[in-house]
Specification:
Helix 5 runs antiparallel to helix 6. It contains twelve helices and no strands. It is an all-alpha fold. The longest helix is centred in the last third of the chain and has 32 residues, at 182-213. Helices cover 81% and strands 0% of the residues.
């Protein structure tokens, strides 16, 4: 018998992705031939039947998208998700439905609940952050990390827009809480503080280094030795590696047109 795994959908989609480069019927024929070359007996028949279900699902999904109102409201998004899940439940067995789509449906539900939290004007930034933490913690472990790239992508773009409009540190922290939750926002705040502390130390070092470089009473070798002593006094061995990188970055920024 055919073992139902997520790989089956990935294989189906791989062959069907050629549509546009070749007719759909040709892609389906190649996929059917591949199934027959890999499987035999009951497993082959089950795989071919599953392919027919998948093709039927894709056709009905296109029609469903046409029939649903093209709205971006939260209610409309929820309506679409419920309709898609119901369509999958009608076409596929419980096992295939879970294996093929469970993670996608959990991710979509998380996204809808996250949007509901963000749009809830009754909650302040801290309450929204706590709610987002709970939502993420309730995800299956394998999904908890997979949602982060999308969250941080949104955070980068919205933070840049807020900074461009003159947003202050408090507003940026509130934005973080509402987008990625209190825990992640707290870690980012600590990172900000570490970066600011490093910048202050680096700027102080650069000022003293500049004084040494501009001292006409020192030879080149004396200047180099004095700068080396300065670096050793103010930074440990690991930090001095970072110091060199920061100096190169600062120099590159100054020479950039």
């Amino acid at each position: 018998n055919l073992r139902i795994t997520r790989d089956i959908v990935q294989i189906f989609d791989y062959f069907l992705s050629a549509v546009g480069e070749e007719p759909l019927t040709r892609s389906i024929e190649r996929l059917q031939a591949y199934i027959r070359s890999q499987l035999s007996g009951a497993a082959q028949a089950q795989a071919l039947a599953l392919l027919e279900q998948y093709l039927d699902y894709k056709r009905q999904l296109v029609q469903l998208e046409r029939d649903l109102p093209q709205l971006s409201s939260l209610d409309a998004l929820k309506q679409r998700e419920i309709a898609v899940q119901a369509l999958r439940a009608r076409i596929f067995s419980d096992e295939a439905h879970q294996v093929f789509f469970a993670n996608d449906e959990r991710y979509n539900l998380f996204t809808l609940e996250r949007l509901a939290v963000q749009r809830d004007d009754r909650l302040d930034a801290n309450a929204k952050g706590a709610a987002l933490d709970r939502l993420r913690e309730n995800l299956p472990e394998e999904l908890q990390d997979s949602v982060l790239p999308q969250l941080h992508s949104e955070l980068r773009s919205q933070t840049a827009a807020l900074q461009a409009s003159g947003g202050n540190a408090e507003q940026i922290q509130a934005l973080r809480q509402q987008l990625v939750g209190n825990q992640a926002a707290g870690r980012l705040q600590v990172l900000d503080q570490q970066r600011q502390k490093w910048k202050q130390r680096f700027d102080h070092f650069q000022q003293e280094k500049s004084s040494i470089d501009n001292n006409p009473g020192l030879s080149s070798s004396d200047k180099q030795a004095a700068i080396q002593r300065l670096a050793e006094e103010q930074f440990d061995e690991h930090e001095r590696l970072r110091l060199d990188a920061s100096a190169q970055l600062a120099s590159a920024r100054k020479t950039k047109p």
